[in-house]
UniProtKB/TrEMBL annotation:
Keywords: Coiled coil
UniProt KW Isomerase keyword: no
Region feature Disordered, mapped onto this chain: 1-22, 144-165, 221-251
Residue stretches in coiled coil: 42-69
Gly residues: compositionally biased ranges: 223-234
Residue stretches of biased makeup (Low complexity): 235-244
Name of the protein described by the UniProt record: Uncharacterized protein
Superkingdom: Eukaryota
TM region(s), chain numbering: none
Native species: Escovopsis weberi
Keyword match rRNA processing: no
Composition-biased stretches (Basic and acidic residues): 156-165
Chain intervals with Polar residues compositional bias: 1-12
Length: 286
């Protein structure tokens, strides 16, 4: 399906940058950026000249030694005299230029460093604003794309929604597997560990966590009704009956719910709800 061209109204949200300013920031700071870049270039030239000056000093020493060694070698002097003079003039020119730079105070060098630091901070700020602008435009395009897809075939939208729900189920299973590995090395007791697991699931996927907690409450209720994993059937035991009545009561807090749970309860409940009864979970999450 061809996408309608973007209009000013469609991108109204993206025109509001996070700092309250528009693209005018970039043009207003352009002169300042150029000035900072010029300062950096001058400092780079100075550093290069210093390297050239050091090389010139070395060549001067070597040239003096060469002249002394060949002072009496007339043939060598006749052949290379002009070249030696040219090298000497180049070295003098470099030294003269370096004298101009060395006349500058140390404060100038520090000022260049400070300007470089400010330029880097400014560039980082501009880069951050550019990223924010790109994010805003991307969000507007995503909203437009979502609007176009909602006007398309509903079957395609339903498939995408189902896939998103199945992905949430897979993520919950993966998270539970990680917690199961952590349970093998934890020093916490099962009630505290289960409470921490359920709290983390509530942060990660609140609706999924509610389904797991309800299934755990039903598991406790079935177990407390007699003949379960923790009770004895047959001759009624008064102590077990007291425990059953306590477990039948609705827990007032997450910690109270977890008092009657062990980690194996979580594993079996997650397997029962998210694996064997996945279709029911998908209907509940819609």
């Amino acid at each position: 399906m061809a996408r309608a061209p973007l209009t000013t109204t469609d991108l109204s949200d993206s025109s509001k940058l996070r700092d309250g300013k528009g693209l005018s920031n970039f043009s207003s700071d352009s002169k300042h950026i150029l000035a900072q870049a010029d300062a950096i270039a001058r400092m780079t030239i100075e550093l290069n000249l210093r390297a050239v000056a050091a090389q010139a000093d070395r060549l001067e020493r070597e040239l003096k030694a060469l002249v002394e060694c060949t002072a009496r070698d007339r043939a060598f002097r006749d052949k290379h005299e002009q070249r030696l003079e040219d090298m000497w003039r180049e070295m003098l020119a470099v030294k003269q230029r370096m004298g101009e730079f060395q006349a500058r105070s140390a404060a100038d060098v520090e000022r260049c460093r400070a300007q470089t630091a400010r330029a880097m901070d400014l560039l980082r700020g501009e880069a951050g604003r550019l990223r924010a602008l790109v994010d805003d435009v991307g969000g507007a395009l995503d909203r437009l794309s979502a609007g176009d897809s909602s006007q398309g075939e509903e079957a395609g939208g339903d498939r995408e929604a189902d896939e998103a729900l199945k992905r949430r189920v897979r993520e919950t299973l993966s998270s539970t597997r990680r917690w199961n590995r952590d349970h093998k090395t934890t020093s916490l007791g099962d009630p505290a560990f289960v409470a921490r697991y359920l709290k983390q699931q509530s942060k990660r996927d609140p609706r999924m966590a509610v389904l797991i907690q309800r299934a755990l409450q039903k598991r406790i209720a079935r177990r407390g009704g007699g003949g379960g994993a923790d009770g004895n059937s047959g001759n009624g035991n008064s102590s077990n009956a007291g425990n059953s009545s306590r477990r039948k009561a609705r827990p007032q807090s997450l910690e109270q719910l977890c008092e009657d749970l062990v980690w194996k309860d979580v594993i079996e409940t997650v397997e029962e709800v998210l694996v064997r009864a996945e279709a029911g979970v998908l209907r509940a999450l819609r």
